[in-house]
Amino acid sequence: xxxxxxxxxxxxxxxxxxxxxxxxxxxxxxxxxxxxxxxxxxxxxxxxxxxxxxxxxxxxxxxxxxxxxxxxxxxxxxxxxxxxxxxxxxxxxxxx
Length: 96
Prior knowledge:
Shape: globular
Radius of gyration: 13 Å
Helix content: 10-25%
Distance between the termini: 24 Å
Oligomer: single chain
Low-confidence stretches: none
């Protein structure tokens, strides 16, 4: 696992790319769709990183949180493995 500073630096390659991400945790859910403008260490949670977007969809949130493993996977593969929709929590994301 990379250090926080290194991971944020490595994640800068994603800026300017388009992302679609959706996630749910029990009864709460949300999604982002847009061009990545900023990636920073989250103020909330030890292992969380916030990805900010310029939205292209009026239903999109302005930011979405990923843990370090998810962010490393997005950098390396451009997408997360498809989450099981029958579980109470999950995150799907793809970079284009």
